[in-house]
Amino acid sequence: MKDAKKFALTVIVIMMAVLLFIQFIVVLLRA
Question: For this UniProt entry, which segments traverse the membrane (predicted)?
């Protein structure tokens, strides 16, 4: 159970980082 919680948290962090990275690329392309 503890590992599953850790895994879910890691997945959320990775998803947030990917979204921020995509937004950064979009801003660079528009500039």
Answer: 7-29
CA 24/CA 31 separation, integer angstroms:
11
Give the residue carrying structure tokens 């850790």. 6
Locate tokens 């895994």: which residue? 7
d(CA 5, CA 8): 5
Is the full-model pTM beyond 0.85?
no
The three-state secondary structure class of 1 is: coil
Residue 7 has pLDDT above 90, yes or no: yes
User: Would you give the DSSP letter of residue 26?
Assistant: H
